[in-house]
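I hope you will forgive my troubling you with a question about protein structure. The record follows directly beneath this note:
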Amino acid sequence: LAEVITDLDLPPDEPFAERCGSCVRCLAACPTQAFLAPGLLDAHRCISYWTIEHRGAIPDEMKAQLGDLVFGCDICQEVCPWNPPPETDAEASGAPDDAIPTRADWLRMGKGEWRRRFGATAFNRTGRRGMQRNAAASVGSVRDLAAHDLLPALPSDTGLADAVKWARRRLTGSEADPPRPPNLG
């Protein structure tokens, strides 16, 4: 995101042509039904919003829908016939291909490793604790029993603490899946 402030008299761009027509692939593919109508996205249903932009706790109904998604989603972008082939997660984040951590890696990562590996990448928008929050929520979403012991003991960050508590409840079977939002398409 950027803004350029200038006093130059620049000619306006040509209007962008609407290309969607009757295509609704993005609406049909969205795992959380975040599109209320063509061209109308409800950010409060969007995985990218919750895992990248939001600070603090993620609502339980969204955590349950994360699956393996720890940083954004882009399913709508991937199914759009007008978009070029998607970049890999590594290309999009600025990280080398072999450097994209697993949920377990995110949960173990300390401040020094975070700064060294991801301080100057797109992951820094969410921050280390935000990525750990997302990883903990994903652990619960997919019920990754192998990651149970990696969940932090007493995290001080409220968003991370909420995700850890929720994931533990899901892993022990004390929390059922919440209902998914209605399909409005």
